[in-house]
Model the fold of this input.
Amino acid sequence: MKKLLMATLILSGLALAQSLKLAGGWVRLVPGPNLSAYFTLYNPGPVPIKIVGASSPVAKAASLHQTMTKNSGGMDMTSMDEVKFLTVPAKSRLVLKPKSYHVMLENVTRSLKIGDKITLVLRLEGGKTLSLQLPVELR
Ligand SMILES: [Cu+2]
Done:
């Protein structure tokens, strides 16, 4: 009986840790095959949660990116680097926004317009997934 209770407590602890909350998100409509997805996730749990990958039914691939601006010879050079994971800190937020972190939807397979909703599936450390619905916007 005691064992069962322990198991229940551990399971509910995990469920709590995985309950990330979406606090706004969007996909930037641009010409060309690659689109950036931005969103804010809140982690109410006591453990940080890592996002280790992404996919979308409307893109051939999706990856986690960071935009970096470096000053080189008086000129601001912007580049994007792939990152292995993103962390949503415990009791805090992870913000993906322009000029910072984003999910790159690569080789989008259908034409999208403003107001369309895109499904973005995030792969979390430990094998769970989180599915987000993000509107396509022109900003
Ligand atoms: Cu990118």
